[in-house]
């Protein structure tokens, strides 16, 4: 079994890669920082030394690098059973104050990367009539927040992409799930002093993904919203 997880050098992506590795999946991971990525790959290998880990530095905001990553995956793995479109950037700020070009930059990383990588890997899933695509959305895909700005726009767009993909792939027996976590203890929240019970753990998201993946063949979780038990952080 083979899985692809983007943005997997830390946080939610790394937790998902480690979980899938522990369950026997070979994993292909990517991130922009080569040093951090290689450390993540080493940690994943410790979880399960017998699986294969393909770790490729990729700027997911650049289409040519996304396509090159897809080519490496296809030349390494005969099939892709799980694709997790997790790569994303979070830049807060109101629309009228954010710098020109930020929306285009965030769209490229948060939305277009998932679009291009999915298109490259989808034919194999359709041919095998098997596969599961997880798109890492957000509570910001459903609710507008102060200072959500361009980031919130991209997350609404990613949810739309995911919903459309779900409809298109029903007849091909390929599952699509949108996972939308709220505040999670990742690098996006660095510097924020979180009180106890106000942040979820990345491993919570990984466990939920695994639960959705292991349902019967005729069942699919279409969308999940996750929040800390005390709700959003205002």
Automatic annotation (TrEMBL):
PANTHER family (UniProt xref): DEHYDROGENASE/REDUCTASE SDR FAMILY MEMBER 7B (PTHR44196), DEHYDROGENASE_REDUCTASE SDR FAMILY MEMBER 7B (PTHR44196:SF1)
Similarity remark: Belongs to the short-chain dehydrogenases/reductases (SDR) family.
Keywords: Oxidoreductase
InterPro entries per the UniProt record, alphabetical: NAD(P)-bd_dom_sf, Sc_DH/Rdtase_CS, SDR_fam
One Gene Ontology cellular component: membrane
Record has Oxidoreductase as a keyword: yes
Entries under Pfam families matching the protein: adh_short
GO molecular function: oxidoreductase activity
Designated name of the protein: Short-chain dehydrogenase/reductase SDR
Organism expressing this protein natively: Chitinophaga pinensis (strain ATCC 43595 / DSM 2588 / LMG 13176 / NBRC 15968 / NCIMB 11800 / UQM 2034)
